[in-house]
Each structure stands twice: as structure tokens, then as C-alpha cells.
Design brief:
Blueprint: E1 3-5, E2 11-13, E3 21-26, E4 29-34, E5 43-45, E6 48-50, E7 57-59, E8 64-66, H1 77-111, H2 125-129
Antiparallel strand pairs: 1-2, 3-4, 5-8, 6-7
Amino acid sequence: RVLYVSSQNVSTIFPAFANRLEYSKQEKKIVITLHNLWKNDSDIYVCAGVVKNSSFLSVNRSGTMMLIKEVEQTDCSNSSWGIYGLIITLALLFSTLICCALYRVYMKKYSQKKNPNAVYEDMSYSSRRNTLVR
């Protein structure tokens, strides 16, 4: 047993499926969703109705067979470490590229010949000869 819905729309979820079942009802249609299935949940599930004032049980259809297999859990943490490593590596390469570009700009700027703010006097012999007083 999974779910019982009375004619007064009172529902009872059986303990084996507590917190693992969701259902919605629209007119004559009930949709049941089961979560976190276990291997021992494998069975044939049928929808059955009980007629009032009778012990007669009517089954609408042949039922649904659910076979639950154990699924091996894959550890996703290893692949996420690879992605994190790739992101960190790309960030380091990008920052290194920026640092190299800035270093080159600053080196170019400081290695250029600057015009000094100084006055030079030509002290060569030829220029002094003309200024000698006789």
C-alpha cells in the first residue's frame, strides 16, 4: 500500500512512503510521484477502488511494474576539483600576462631619454678663444 484517498478527499500516505511521495488530484485523475526509491520498492503497483458498502475491489488497469536497480554513485568531487584547478590556472596565467604587460609599459616609460632641465656651457677651446680679452 502506498496511498489511500477517501471519497471525502482525505488522504493517507502509508509509513513506508512517508516523505517520499507527492501526489496531485485533478477531477478523476491522481498523479503519484515517488522519490528516493529503494531496491525493495520493486513491485507491481495498481490503482484500485473500493465501492461503498461493499467489499468488492475494482482494479482499473493491469498495473505498473517498477523494477529498481542499484545505481552506483559516482563521485563528482574529483571532476569538480579538475574544473577548479583549471579556473585557478587560467586566473594565474591571466594575472601573469597583465603583470608582464604593465612591467613592459613602465620599463619603456623609465628607460626613455629625458630632456634634463640643466644649462650647459660649451667650454671647448674654440669657443673660449673668441671670448678672450686682449
